[in-house]
Amino acid sequence: xxxxxxxxxxxxxxxxxxxxxxxxxxxxxxxxxxxxxxxxxxxxxxxxxxxxxxxxxxxxxxxxxxxxxxxxxxxxxxxxxxxxxxxxxxxxxxxxxxxxxxxxxxxxxxxxxxxxxxxxxxxxxxxxxxxxxxxxxxxxxxxxxxxxxxxxxxxxxxxxxxxxxxxxxxxxxxxxxxxxxxxxxxxxxxxxxxxxxxxxxxxxxxxxxxxxxxxxxxxxxxxxxxxxxxxxxxxxxxxxxxxxxxxxxxxxxxxxxxxxxxxxxxxxxxxxxxxxxxxxxxxxxxxxxxxxxxxxxxxxxxxxxxxxxxxxxxxxxxxxxxxxxxxxxxxxxxxxxxxxxxxxxxxxxxxxxxxxxxxxxxxxxxxxxxxxxxxxxxxxxxxxxxxxxxxxxxxxxxxxxxxxxxxxxxxxxxxxxxxxxxxxxxxxxxxxxxxxxxxxxxxxxxxxxxxxxxxxxxxxxxxxxxxxxxxxxxxxxxxxxxxxxxxxxxxxxxxxxxxxxxxxxxxxxxxxxxxxxxxxxxxxxxxxxxxxxxxxxxxxxxxxxxxxxxxxxxxxxxxxxxxxxxxxxxxxxxxxxxxxxxxxxxxxxxxxxxxxxxxxxxxxxxxxxxxxxxxxxxxxxxxxxxxxxxxxxxxxxxxxxxxxxxxxxxxxxxxxxxxxxxxxxxxxxxxxxxxxxxxxxxxxxxxx
Length: 688
Ligand code: FES
What we know:
By secondary structure, this protein is an alpha+beta fold. α10 links the parallel β24 and β25 (about 475-485). The protein is elongated.
């Protein structure tokens, strides 16, 4: 490191636009320290050695009218040399076909990106040009930093002509995307974007960066506006931060097989949240680009690249392309509808649990779900019988791109599901439920599943592992799985593979209540049921988030035990199955004040079916009352955790003898556990 750089305390490199996005995500403080240490005013030795190896580099430059352009320039390796830590000599002749060339005069600020597609290494620079000849210039470095290698596809390059020989075809200028431009964007898995801001110091800061995704990840609107998902990265937000201050953008798409270049300049808009963001799985934000000037340069580059077999970036496993995102938006529009699903596959997970893989049968895609959510399904169990509605937890992760429910044979509906074969049909509605996990959180997670309660736990574990591939950091996780016997325990292979992929960050503890001939340490770790004593003996002292799922008594006793240890209520996420829901003891010691139940008879009107009934104090729930009156409302869990029975309240109020775990919206009731609340009118109208 140069001496003077050692002595000077680095300034924060961030400008107001970058800070605005960092603040909106709550990472500004963390990024302040990172920026000061990571963004340097000189090239470390590694970078000085990196640039001379490259046969091409990307540049961002601003022309006299303020338009920013991204370009790629190629020459024999060695055309860039760093005589010291502050200067990069770049031997490149002028190229008047390149719109970026006009922004590369003496004293102009430019951005630069060196990238090795065959290794995914990349480094960024920006600074000002010193030029006294037409065959090259020196870049005086202002900012230098490495870049994360995510979303880069592996490619090997080869020159197809002398790099100084110009293209054989003249550039074509336009203002809109023609068919050729649309085609190059539609198949792109990579592009480059240039942006800039004029800083308070008077210096212009130009950045150029790489963007990668699955082929087709850039969506082209009918109006020619591009929508681009922004996947998680290094939290610098150079490009998006620049857009917040100055919405000018320059995009470069390269056809790696033909050497064609598509260069565009126009305006950009950042979208921090919208339903489209959720539809682009893996995207944290979106941005849109409206092209204003479009230049197509056929054979613009003397290089061609061959895609390496298996060269897709592993970070892309948890992202979708724009077609998949569109399908998800269509599916989201059908969230409240019962949709037909076909059984695509059936698989036994244990002697009692069978998985059904479900594929949509209406030509519309799957709606995105969160790990831990359940799927409301509707099935016809026999002629003349009314359809049954039940909810089953999805044992698949959001990134699996499929719905898989894993069902224990236990009751009419589940026996029916166990009898279904591939090709049979059921109906399902959008996944629901708030028993979900953030796979990227840093706090360690303890996942505890008993019996078929392992299904949401498995989905959560799969999600944690999928997020670790994307973020290259695994949330530390303990998994406790309780079962009666090895034969009844489900997902052994799948869980073992996930634990192995966690590389020591995921640990598994298996309990058998009836181990019989099973061998300790090989087939199980704990004989008996998982209880607080086992948790205390196994878990190192730390601050955990707990996720519990199992029979009601099991879940309640673990919850109560954890609360007795002063674990905050908010840290214990739980879902119980069976007829009783979990009774929570909120932080602060007292339960939330619930409106008292009516202490006088209430006249209940079921408005849609034009029926009425009288509810008497001490009677059952509104679902019981509706069924007694001959109605068949939909329900799943009957304990306030799935949300299937949500019903709009048209007049009057309801209350709950114990707080349901499903979040109830304003103006609606979970009738499976609601009763009429005290009111002056003595009336309750439900949209049933
Ligand atoms: S049926 Fe599940 S919340 Fe009412």
